[in-house]
Amino acid sequence: MEEIRIYQSYISAVVIPLIVIAIPLYGMFKRVPVYESFVEGAKEGFKVGVMIIPYLVAIFVAINMFRASGAMVAMEDFLRPALTMIGFPPEVLPMAIIRPLTGGGSAGVVADLAQQHGMDSIITRMAGTMFGSTETTFYILAVYFGAVNVKKTRHALPAGLIADVIAIFLSVYIVQWWFG
Q: Domain range holding 126?
């Protein structure tokens, strides 16, 4: 196991610098003005960033209001009997609720769970698996659809939420099976 970690560490130390070098070299090989293209992309990225700020502020305010009001704890307490009955630890519920909304908030939940239960606890492993296997669905829809002024998301929201729900439950049950 230690050999695998050493190998992973070596690969991660090499891959990012290779990518940083390879992309401009490929652009130069294709005779693309690399620096000018980068600056133009940065200008467009800044414009998009300014356009999506209202969506981001709305998401962050809603999440913070939900947590600060105590609604998260109340929901966890209310759902505890049903969650326990299906084998879903109630401590992981905040991760399942916050992950579709924000990546930073869900990273904070994982950190809180790791601090409360320990890094190698089954609760932290479930939350970490959820973090890696789900998506910030509402954040992505707000940012990307907001950036291009799409008002009707059609099937994107239901498809994203269905994928998130499946990944959340699979995270719990696979971690229980693997580590439990």
A: 47-179
